[in-house]
Design a protein that fits this description.
By secondary structure, the chain is mainly beta. It contains two helices and twelve strands, in the order ββββββαββββββα. α1 crosses α2. It is globular and about 45 Å long.
Length: 223
């Protein structure tokens, strides 16, 4: 009768534990009838998954097979979605035009410090986020692409590099001089904020709601 021993070493890009010196090995022993298998610690950046299967039999013969496979481990958590909406006392065309002015967004969105449209690629823009929260100074940046809009109905975007995020602004008419603006932002929780992930979503929803309140005032004076 044979027995099988499986030994695994998984490395990720997130530095969750200190690396062992390369001269040291990790050793695991399973049961009295199993052999001990040791293998060197691998760099966290390799994302390499190793499995060693040791087969022993009553005749004391042993066959060892090693399988090498790559498995990606994301350094960030799951996506979270935040949606807020508000009735704005301006015509829908004014709200749409105002929100389309990306470089003006830092004037009313609390946590956006700057937005710069690329001169040679007007559908791309660089965003910077700076805000103090959860006892730390939070700073992120990303390059975003504005997707094809639907005039007076929808503006949407997705990040191309930097902080992973995407979102959409939808506009619904309420009358000749008012509309409803609905803002949805989706993002992957950075590893930096993983310890406060459960509190992050309601916190951001509060910031987005404040942003819409300021947007309502900004849009009235927008020309």
């Amino acid at each position: 009768m044979s027995s099988t021993t499986v030994v695994g070493s998984i490395s990720t890009t997130a530095a969750l534990t200190p690396l062992l010196p390369s001269s040291r090995t990790s050793r695991s022993t399973f049961g009295a009838n199993s052999t001990s298998t040791s293998f060197p610690a691998t760099p966290l950046s390799s994302n390499l998954l190793f499995f060693k299967l040791n087969h022993t039999s009553s005749s004391s013969s042993k066959r060892t097979s090693t399988f090498h496979g790559f498995k990606r481990f994301s350094p960030v958590m799951e996506w979270q979605d935040c949606t807020v909406k508000m009735e704005i006392d301006v015509p829908i065309s004014v709200a749409y035009t105002c929100y389309s002015d990306r470089e003006a967004i830092p004037n009313w969105m609390p946590f956006i410090s700057s937005v710069k449209i690329l001169p040679d690629k007007p559908d791309l823009s660089r965003w910077s986020l700076k805000y103090k929260a959860f006892g730390r100074d939070i700073e992120f940046s990303w390059l975003a692409r504005n997707m094809q809009p639907i005039p007076n109905q929808k503006i949407h975007w997705r990040s191309m590099e930097g902080l992973p995020n995407r979102g959409a602004v939808r506009f619904y008419p309420k009358g000749p001089s008012s509309c409803v603006v609905e803002l949805t932002v989706s993002y992957e929780v950075p590893q930096l904020l993983a310890p406060v992930a459960s509190a992050l979503q309601p916190f951001l929803e509060g910031l987005l709601q404040r942003g819409l309140e300021r947007f309502a005032k900004f849009a009235k004076s927008y020309t």
